[in-house]
Specification:
Layout: H1 2-10, E1 34-35, E2 47-50, E3 56-59, E4 67-70, H2 72-97, H3 112-120, E5 127-129, H4 135-140, H5 145-153, H6 184-197, E6 204-209, H7 216-227, E7 232-238, E8 241-242, E9 245-246, H8 247-250, E10 265-269, H9 273-291, E11 294-299, H10 318-327, H11 330-340, H12 346-349, H13 364-381, E12 403-405, E13 412-414
Parallel strand pairs: 5-6, 6-7, 7-11, 10-11
Antiparallel strand pairs: 1-2, 2-4, 3-10, 8-9, 12-13
GO biological process, one term: pyruvate decarboxylation to acetyl-CoA
EC number: 1.2.4.1
Pfam family, one: E1_dh
């Protein structure tokens, strides 16, 4: 009883003087999922694992199931994609520091489980739109590493022909890369409106960061999406810092999954790839089943600064970053699952031989490095856009005017 009294003395009080109910906190370990059955020999046969009981929190809805089915193939595929995305971003970091990439450049090193987990649980017909930390999404949504790096370098091989840069990369089912803070959220609601209008069984995932969460247009989009019951999942990538300001200093309510008023929400561990994928599966099923919008908050972490101009150490300590790298890294977490569950050994993951069965996806680290190194050279070898290319890609093809005026009245281009 004495210990209970001590516990109660530490609990917060409500305005009425009563003890506030105990709320479990989300855990963000990258390797807390447990294997619950033996792994089959075949790479495509599902087997069951169980997520940590605090992998999710819910607001006005149930949490996703902790029981998840995965396969050897899916785990190895996610590992390869995460490793490739990280190496791509690291190469962009090196190219920027070599002054080959100019302007704005925002990297997603540390947040790979969000992009890869999202892509693994949606279809190619679903739509995705995000802010400026967009490079992994662009590749996973049908682009190429060469196309992304070429765009960063301002070369013709870039996904926007070298004219968009880091924040303006698109595919038919990926609406970018957007540079205006929070502006992509109402656009995402508009895409979801089109999906509902066309009666398509698909969902839109509109991503934004904790730094954009206080934008008025974000709440306006929430309201319209709920009013019209749109199949839109609003995804907050909460990496703890909006530029150089911590979430606690900028937001009175840091539980971003509860900010939708009448829109239900899910908070998920964004450092465990299996938890991330399960949360997205739940969110997509919710949206396409006609239940309307949903808020999904991923609690994640970026290792670098907000952008390449931010060292990322003036508002947090180097020890904090190193602790996250060493204890909660999403790639290391998945690697631990693969090794401990017997999906593949560490030697398999780093092997150089191609003589093993394809489903093991061996030599993943080596293959990722070779892919990125090749893409870097291809991007660097591509020429910069021609002067006449400045007149193209202004209008949707087939809708151009007969002529376009340039910087001066006499500078006119005739199509």
């Amino acid at each position: 009883m004495a210990s209970l009294a001590r516990l109660r003395s530490r609990l917060p009080l409500t305005k009425s003087g009563r003890f506030a109910p105990f709320v479990r906190s989300l855990q963000t370990s990258a390797d807390s999922t447990q294997l619950t059955q033996s792994i089959p020999e075949d790479g495509s046969t599902p087997f069951s694992v169980k997520l940590h009981e605090d992998s999710f929190r819910a607001y006005h809805t149930e949490t996703p199931s902790l029981e998840v089915e995965v396969t050897k193939d899916s785990l190895l595929k996610m590992y390869k994609e995460m490793v490739t995305m990280r190496r791509m971003e690291q190469s962009a970091d090196a190219l920027y520091k070599s002054k080959l990439i100019r302007g704005f450049c925002h990297l997603a090193i540390g947040q790979e489980a969000v992009a890869v987990g999202l892509e693994s649980s949606i279809t190619k017909d679903d739509m995705v739109i995000t802010a400026y930390r967009c490079h992994p999404f662009a590749v996973l949504r049908g682009g190429t590493v060469t196309g992304v790096l070429g765009e960063l370098l301002g070369r013709q091989v870039g996904m926007s022909n070298g004219k968009g840069g880091s924040m303006h990369i698109f595919t038919p089912n990926f609406f970018g890369g957007n540079g205006i803070v929070g502006a992509q959220v109402p656009i995402g609601a508009g895409i979801a409106f089109a999906q509902k209008y066309l009666e398509r069984p698909t969902a839109t995932f509109a991503l934004y960061g904790d730094g954009a969460s206080n934008q008025g247009q974000v709440f306006e989009a929430f309201n319209m999406a709920k009013l019209w019951n749109l199949p839109c999942v609003f995804v907050c990538e909460n990496n703890k810092y909006g530029m150089g300001t911590s979430a606690e200093r900028s937001s009175s309510n840091t539980e971003y999954f509860t900010r939708g008023d009448k829109i239900p929400g899910i908070q998920a561990n964004g450092m465990d790839i299996i938890a991330s994928a399960q949360a997205v599966k739940y969110a997509r099923d919710w949206a396409v089943s006609g239940k309307g919008p949903l808020l999904l908050e991923f609690v994640t972490y970026r290792y670098g600064g907000h952008s390449m101009s931010d060292p990322g150490t003036t508002y947090r300590t180097r020890e904090e970053v190193q602790r996250m790298r060493s204890t909660q890294d999403p790639i290391r977490g998945l690697q631990r699952y693969i090794e401990e569950w017997g999906v593949a050994t560490d030697a398999d993951l780093k092997a150089s031989s191609d003589a093993f069965p394809p489903y093991l996806l061996l030599a993943l680290d080596k293959a990722a490095k070779e892919e990125i190194d090749k893409a870097v050279e291809e991007a660097k070898a591509s020429p910069v856009p021609k002067t006449e290319d400045l007149w193209t890609d202004i209008y949707y093809k087939g809708t151009e005017p007969s002529a376009m005026r340039g910087r001066e009245r006499g500078e006119v281009h005739v199509y």
